[in-house]
Amino acid sequence: MTAASGRAIKLAVVGAPGTVGGQVVELIGARDFSYAELKLFATSAGIAAEVESGERALPVSPLESPADLAPFDIAVLAIPEAEARSVIQARPGPILIDLSAATRLSSVTPVVAPGLTPRERLLALESEKVFSVPYPAAQVIASVLNAIGIRSGFVAAHVMIAASAEGREAVSKLFNQSVDLLNARLDLGDDETQLAFNVFPPPNARALAEVLSTQVGALLGSSPELTIQMTRVSAFHGGALCLFLPPAADSGEWAGRLRSAPGIILVESDEASGLIDTVGQEGVVVRMAAGKSGASLWCTYDSARLAALSALWIAETLSSVAA
């Protein structure tokens, strides 16, 4: 797929009926993404037959095998990790944009994000054929630190994960548990965790924190001394984290830098900025409290939309050389 091809791209979205896949399809319609062909796939039985994109309802086809993706230039994989890994291992032909965790631990798969990865570097990596979209929390941490100008030193973060970060099935499970609990009929098995009205570290908290730290370093091109605590919260959508920064000589300039940074919305009033307030937002909402001991930054964002935006940015950038 090069500038010499002189044609619009053929684009596939695998997992289109899912939480993130649906966002990708919606953004394709909203941003008037140019393509020669767009085809939507699902990997599970009983999925929605259509997905809305702009003012159109697009049909969804079952993905019978990775070979179904061979006719396309770019395929977005918004599917569970195991399914994405099988597609990536098959290398069916198109450039693959992975939104699962299948490639996030890979040392060879580029982790890229808008505002952090130069367009020229993304284009230079086109021959890699697989790109990994970072965890939204890692992208938010890197974006805020990049805006402030921090690329080294100590940083602490507390990341709060909503159900949507684990897909539509997790959202459904939280909903069902909430209904059962409110009706005094919640009955959990010995190996089940209560998700409804509960806050707890996820079972893979330590491993996930290490992945986030690695991704932040990759996106910044440097490695701050980052300590991350992970918490699963009883919320359906969105994401939130709090950053803790020690004082620095240029601390007084942080607010101004955040105010002027693209993709960041600095809240300087007493208005609430919770998870619900950022659902559908394309930017990260940041509230900063600073003092002699340093600063804390409360950041809220729509994790599904942020991931979808990153995937579409990769596709748009790569497709620009095919036009």
Structure description:
This protein is an alpha/beta fold and 323 residues long. The chain folds into 2 domains: 3-134 and 307-319, 3-Layer(aba) Sandwich (Rossmann fold); 137-303, Dihydrodipicolinate Reductase, domain 2. It has helices at 19-30, 81-90, 119-124, 136-148, 168-182, 205-220, 254-260, 303-319, and strands at residues 10-14, 37-42, 50-53, 56-62, 74-77, 95-98, 130-132, 154-161, 225-232, 239-245, 264-266, 284-291, 294-301. α1 packs across α8 (303-319) and α4 (136-148) packs across α6 (205-220). It starts with 9 loop residues before the first strand and ends with a helix.
What topology emerges from the helices and strands here?
Blueprint: E1 10-14, H1 19-30, E2 37-42, E3 50-53, E4 56-62, E5 74-77, H2 81-90, E6 95-98, H3 119-124, E7 130-132, H4 136-148, E8 154-161, H5 168-182, H6 205-220, E9 225-232, E10 239-245, H7 254-260, E11 264-266, E12 284-291, E13 294-301, H8 303-319
Parallel strand pairs: 1-2, 1-5, 2-4, 5-6, 6-7, 8-9, 11-12
Antiparallel strand pairs: 3-4, 8-10, 10-13, 12-13
Helix pairs in contact: 1-8, 4-6
